[in-house]
Amino acid sequence: MQSKPLGICLIIDCVGNDTGILRDTFTSLGYEVQSFLYLSVDDIIKVLHKVARMPQHQDYDSFVCVLVSRGGSQSVFGVDETHSGFPLDHIRRLFMGDVCPSLLGKPKIFFIQNYVVSEGQLEDSSFLEVDGPSVKDVESKARQPGACTIHREADFFWSLCKADVSLLKRPSSSSSLYLQCLCEKLGRERKCSLLELHIELNSKVYDWNSRVSAKKRYYVWLQHTLRKKLILSCT
Asked: What PANTHER family does the annotation carry (predicted)?
């Protein structure tokens, strides 16, 4: 990636514990950071739609979105106390190639920390990683008649961490272990692919989960359709 900045990094923090370190980390990586605190679901949707339509994407090489919120197993609530939530899958759709053509063929990187409100919705495992469709699958779908040869779902990196909402009631700062580890890994002066970095992050989360009770565990999923090796390093 050669553009300066590398792209827009959108931070939506509806909890308020990690904005500072996230902003510093992605600024040091060369991103133009835009951060929003304590948004309702309606405001989250408005911000996402606005950012997806930004003409700057045309000149940039990638896009990053970090979202921190309370939510359900498959949705986020923002600061709303009562709301059905905004489905996580809808967030990804806003940045697919057919909806956001200025990002077609460019890495679209998502890190989501979701503090699940309803009990019984967290998986009973230390961590679960699910790879997205293989590169061959994405490219085969893309080879269809028409001007565009890149599949609309190509080049996504979707990292989702779920944790019990009770973690936010701890007397400590309540920062997300997942996001703290992410920033620590990204902040190192080295050239490491994003996939390799995520494996290291998973390892650290696994170690944490092995030492704490179920209510204090983090559960990490990864789906990606990256077609090329992606490296982020501090500038």
From this structure: CASP8 AND FADD LIKE APOPTOSIS REGULATOR, DED DOMAIN-CONTAINING PROTEIN
